[in-house]
C-alpha cells in the first residue's frame, strides 16, 4: 500500500536546539504507529513537524493528506476546556476545516454529528458543557470531533491518560475501526499493554534519533524505555 506520509532525512529543531536528526520512514493508510521515547525525546516536536507547524531544519515531510483532513488530539492537560461549548458543538466543530466556522450546519451534517455521538456513547451528554465532563467523556468528545472531520491522518498524544477503563476500551476499538477504514494513526503511548494491543509498529525516539520496531520485537527496561537491539529497517512492516 502506498505511503500517505513520508519522512525524508528529517531534522527538526526547537529554537537553536537540534531535537531530531536524519529521521526517515513511511506511514501507510490504515496503519497504527506508536511513538515512544523518554521525556524530551522529541515526540511533540515530531508531531509539530508532521502537522506543518514546525518547519524542517533539513529534509522533508511529504504528506498526501490535505491539512483539512489531518487531526491532532493534544494531551488533555494542554487543553483549555473552560470556554462555554457543549459536547455537540465540539463534535460539530469537526466540520470547520472543510465547512468554515461561520456557516450554519445543514441537516446532513447534523445527522452525521448524531451518528458520531451515538458511536461514542455521547448522546445523553450532547448539551453538557465541556467543563463539566469527566476525563473519559472529554476524550470521547474530542475523538468525536476527529470522526466528524473525517480525518485521514490522526495524531494523538497520550489519549488514555486520566481516562476510565471502559472508555479506554471504547477508544481502542474506535481507533482500530478508524484504521480499518483507512485512517493512518500515530499515537504517543507509554503503556506497554495498550501499545501491544493497538500498534502495528513502533517508532522509538531517543537522543535525537528514531528507531523502528514491531511491538512483538520490543523488550522493556524497568525504566519503561525500550531496550531491544533488534530494530527493524525504517518504514512499514506490512
Ligand atoms: N518551544 C520550545 N522552545 C525551545 N525548546 C523546546 C520547545 N519545545 C520543546 N523544546 C525542547 O525540545 C526538546 C523536545 O521536546 P518535546 O516536547 O518534543 O519532547 P517530548 O518527547 O514530547 O517530551 P514529553 O514526553 O515530556 O512530552 C526538549 O529538550 C524540549 O525542552
Question: What overall form do the CA principal axes indicate?
Answer: globular
Number of helices: 7
Q: Total domains, how many?
A: 2
The radius of gyration computed from the alpha-carbon positions, rounded to a whole number of angstroms, is 18 Å
Report the structural category: alpha/beta
Assign the CATH superfamily of the largest domain.
P-loop containing nucleotide triphosphate hydrolases
What are the segments in which pLDDT stays under 50 over at least 5 consecutive residues? none
Give a quick account of the main beta sheet: strands, pairing sense, barrel closure. 6 strands, mixed
Portion in helices: 25-40%
Number of β-strand runs: 9
Distance between the termini: 9 Å
- CATH fold name of the largest domain: Rossmann fold
How much of the residues is beta strand, in percent?
25-35%
What compounds sit in this structure? adenosine-5'-triphosphate
Average predicted local confidence, pLDDT: 87
What order do the strands of the largest sheet run in, or round the barrel if closed? 5-6-7-3-8-9
Name given to the CATH architecture of the largest domain = 3-Layer(aba) Sandwich
GO molecular function: ATP binding
Protein name: Metal ABC transporter ATP-binding protein
Keywords: ATP-binding, Nucleotide-binding, Transport
Family: Belongs to the ABC transporter superfamily.
Amino acid at each position: 500500500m502506498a505511503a500517505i506520509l513520508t519522512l525524508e532525512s528529517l531534522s527538526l529543531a526547537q529554537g537553536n536546539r537540534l531535537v531530531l536528526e536524519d529521521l526517515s520512514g513511511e506511514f501507510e493508510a490504515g496503519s497504527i504507529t506508536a511513538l515512544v521515547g523518554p521525556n524530551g525525546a522529541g515526540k511533540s516536536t515530531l508531531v509539530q513537524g508532521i502537522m506543518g507547524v514546525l518547519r524542517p531544519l533539513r529534509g522533508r515531510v511529504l504528506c498526501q493528506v490535505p491539512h483539512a483532513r489531518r487531526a491532532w488530539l493534544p494531551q488533555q492537560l494542554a487543553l483549555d476546556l473552560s470556554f462555554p461549548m457543549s459536547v455537540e458543538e465540539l463534535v460539530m466543530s469537526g466540520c470547520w476545516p472543510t465547512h468554515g466556522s461561520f456557516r450554519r450546519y445543514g441537516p446532513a451534517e447534523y445527522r452525521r454529528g448524531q451518528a458520531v455521538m451515538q458511536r461514542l456513547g455521547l448522546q445523553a451528554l450532547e448539551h453538557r458543557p465541556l467543563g463539566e465532563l469527566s476525563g473519559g467523556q472529554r476524550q470521547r468528545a474530542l475523538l468525536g470531533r476527529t470522526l466528524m472531520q473525517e480525518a485521514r491522518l490522526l495524531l494523538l498524544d497520550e489519549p488514555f491518560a486520566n481516562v476510565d477503563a471502559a472508555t479506554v476500551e471504547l477508544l481502542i476499538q474506535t481507533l482500530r475501526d478508524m484504521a480499518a477504514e483507512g485512517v493512518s494513526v500515530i499515537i504517543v503511548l507509554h503503556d506497554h499493554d495498550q501499545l501491544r494491543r493497538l500498534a502495528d509498529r513502533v517508532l522509538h525516539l531517543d537522543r535525537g534519533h528514531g528507531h523502528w520496531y514491531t511491538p512483538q520485537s520490543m523488550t522493556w527496561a524497568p525504566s519503561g524505555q525500550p531496550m531491544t537491539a533488534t530494530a527493524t529497517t525504517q518504514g512499514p512492516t506490512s
